[in-house]
Every structure is written in structure tokens, then in C-alpha cells.
Amino acid sequence: SSCHGSPKTNSLPEGIRQPPMSELRNVWIFAGCAALNSCNLGYDLGINSVVGPPLQEDFGLNSVELELFIAALDFFSIFGALASGKISDFLGRRKAFAVAACTFLAGTVFLVVSTSYLMLMLGRCLLGLGIGFGLAADPLYISEVTPREHRGRFVSLSEIGINVGLVLGFLTGAALSWMPGHVRWRWMFAAGGVLPCVMLLLVRFVMVESPRWLMLKDRADEAITVMELLYPKGTDVASMVDDIKVDIAQECALNAKVRWRDLFCPAPAVKEMLIVGVGIAGCQQLCGIDILQYFMLFILNDAGIESESSQIASLVALGFIKLLLVIVAGPLFDRSGRRPLLLASCAGMSVSLLVLAINAWFLNVAWLTLVALVAFLSSFSFGMGPGAWLIPSEVFGNHVRAKGMALATVANRIVGSVMAATALSLSEALTWGGCYFLLTCVVVGIFLFIYWRVPETKGMSLEEVTAYFVEITNDRSSLLHTPSLEHESGRQVPLDLPTPMGKASDLAWDGVGRPT
């Protein structure tokens, strides 16, 4: 059988015309506004790449204290992400963005006026809560105002927003590099308050409420008005709203049956969804991206690039390259599929990390360090960056989607905080070369995980993805009504579902429900 079957493209409900991308101007505007919220995380990543040394010098911080300061944001973003669902359901998606922006602003104020390590940590915790709110709210809002057929491109806007913020953080560091260290870091954090202020203005004067949330609140007339604003004339908005209504009714009925206990003691199909969705979200951080971004100045200094102007210039160049690759990634995910880009991304990262390790151990050539860093960030940006959020949004069935996405976000933040909290200590114990080699082995493991466990979800509806996991685990308890065919083995196999090794109808099946 073929190893790369073409995924089935889902047709829209009868009467609904799918508008082309060129006619979705308002969708682009509102999705872009939501993605701007991700700039807060990117700015923090960028500014902390340059703020660490002056902050460490001004407060006399040791390596562990600086690690904990950096990692606190990832750790407390977990609690923000967990609370975000309740906040966005109660207040609405737009007001959830306002809550995130206000929390981020409060954290910025605490950082700017800090006179002690305790105040620094308090400000950092508030920043983490605000970023956690935004991390969960961004993809939720974007998925609810954009058409399913273009979700790969639109979901990648959040990753683009992170990278725009990253570049802004690097540029701010470069613009303020002339200041004395004890003043510079305060202005760097203060400049981060501009983005949440812009977000508050967009929430108030530009963004619309999610039509799905309006339907949840039985405000169908307002939902139709928003849909008419989102889609061009000629689109059957009423049918689309009816479709949302049916989907909400099914999801509410399923959610009423699913408890957290069901995810921690899951049925086989749900267990496989969790392994893929939560696993890929954790792997995004496990590859070491935050270590290289948060501690970039330490890495460049170790490579022999000691001039501050050269370090800042290198950071800005790396940031722009990473941003360009992320912009390209969205259309590629819709054209090439998820698995090829994820696998290519891991292959590129592992080679880049191995080059960094060899260079740090034996060569110590500054330009080779820069080339390998460019290759690593580029490889991450066109695959694992956006893909690690796209896959979880697609593999969880309606009945576990909300709770599954929450677990994926928590896994991502936990791994990120652990990586950030141990980076400098590991570099002191193993040297940076040892850290690179350890990360190389980890990324090779991630490659194997994706190859064996992550299915191709391009062009599949949530119901088809659920049916795929049901079939490979032989778990009838989770099966939604999906067209199927009788396989020659006697198993019921969904029609032409994409799998890691082709179409389900092309596969032989072993005794435990896995394709052979």
C-alpha cells in the first residue's frame, strides 16, 4: 500500500459557500488582533534575552535566582491558562483579552518599580498569569472566528504574534543599549506595557465577540450579525449559525458526561488522543527553544561573541529570520500537511544542536555558532513552533476537547518552566556543549515519537479524527457516528482517513488495533 495517501477533504454542509482567503478581510483583521495578544509572550522572551545580565548585576543575583525569575513566568502562566476557560466563558472572549492585558500591565508596573528580589518575583508572577490568560484565549478566539478549511494558516498567527513580540523585544534591547545597566532593565520592562495598552484599545474599538460564545449565551441575532461581518455577501450565514448551534448542543451533551477523572483514567481512544495532543505540546518546550531564547546572551558570550553591540545585532538578525520562517509555515501546514513539517523540523533542530555541541567542544568558531542558531530557530519556526499548537487543537474529540487543550497547555508550560529553571545550572555542570548534546538526543526522541504516534490531520474534521483514534485502539465506547467500511479483516474502518502510513482503507490491522 501507499505510504502517503491523500487526506480526504471535507465538504461543507449543503448551502454553505466557502469563501476564498481573499474575501476574508475582516477575519484576518480580528484574528490578527487576537494574535497581537501573543506579542506579550514574545516580547518577554526577547527582552529577557538581553535583560538578564544587567538585572543580575544590579541585584547581585546568582544563577539559581536568575533561573527562578525567568522560570516563574512559565510556571504561573499555567494557572492563568487554567483560569482562562472560566473567564472567557463567563465574561466573553473579548473581555478575556482585556483581563489578560490588565494583568500583564499590573505585572509590568511591579517590575519597573521593583527594589527587591521579592518585588521582581511578584511582578513576574503577574506577567505569567496574564500570558497564561492570553495563551489559552488566542487560539480559542481565532478558531471561533475563522473557517475550518483555513485553520492551519490562521492558527499560525499566534506563533507569528509571538515572534513579532520577540523581534520587538530584541529591537528594544538594541535601542536602549546605550543606557546604564541599572536604568536600562527598568525601561526595557516599561516598554512592554505598550502592547497590552494597544490590546485594550483593540478590544474596545475593533474586535467583535466570538459568534460561538454568543450562541452559547442564546444571543443568536448578535451571532448572525457578527457572522455577516466576518464573511462576504453570498455566504449562507444562517446555515453556518445553525451548524454552530448543533455543534454546541453535541459538545455540551458530551462535556456533561466527561469528568476530569475520565481523562486521568481514560478509555483507550482518549488515552491515545492525550498521548498525541499533550505529548506534542510538551515536546515543543522539551526541544530547548526557551533555553536558547531566554539565555541567548550567555550562549553568544560562551561562543566568543563578547561585544555587546555584536550580541544585540545577532539577536535582532536571529529574531527576523525566525519571524520570516513562521510566516511561511502557516500556508505550508495547509498544503503539505502536519507530519512532514513536524518531522523535518525535528531533523533540522537535531542536526543544528549537534553542530552547536561539536563547535562548543572542539572548534569554538563564533560564526558557526550563529549559523547553527539560525538553522535551529528556522527549523523550530516552520514546524514545532506552530505545529505543536495546531495538532492538539485537532486531535481532541468534541467530548474531551476543552479539558484536553487545558492539559496540553499545562504540559507545555510545566516543561517550559522546568527547562528555564535548570538551564544555567546544567550549563555550569555539563558546559553548554553538553547541554546541546543532551538536547540533540531529546529531539531525536521527539522525532521518533512524531513518526510513530502523531497522525496526519490535514483536511480531517474533529469527528473523523475521533474515529481514527477509535479504530487504532479498537475502542467502541468513544466512537461518534462516522461513515465506515468493512475491512477485509472484519474491522470497521473509517473511509479514507489519513493515518501516519496512508489511508485507513489501505492498512492491515494487527490484533490490538494498530496499523501494520
TrEMBL record:
Domain of life assignment: Eukaryota
InterPro entries referenced in this protein's UniProt entry, alphabetically: MFS_dom, MFS_sugar_transport-like, MFS_trans_sf, Myo-inositol_Transporter, Sugar/inositol_transpt, Sugar_transporter_CS
Pfam families per record: Sugar_tr
Membrane topology: Multi-pass membrane protein
Localization (cell): Membrane
Transcription regulation as UniProt keyword: no
GO cellular component terms, A-Z: membrane
Catalytic activity: D-xylose(out) = D-xylose(in); D-mannose(out) = D-mannose(in); D-glucosamine(out) = D-glucosamine(in); D-fructose(out) = D-fructose(in)
All residue ranges annotated as the Major facilitator superfamily (MFS) profile domain in the record: 30-458
Subunit structure: Homodimer.
Sequence similarity: Belongs to the major facilitator superfamily. Sugar transporter (TC 2.A.1.1) family.
Annotated protein name in UniProt: Hexose transporter 1
Annotated source species: Noctiluca scintillans (Sea sparkle)
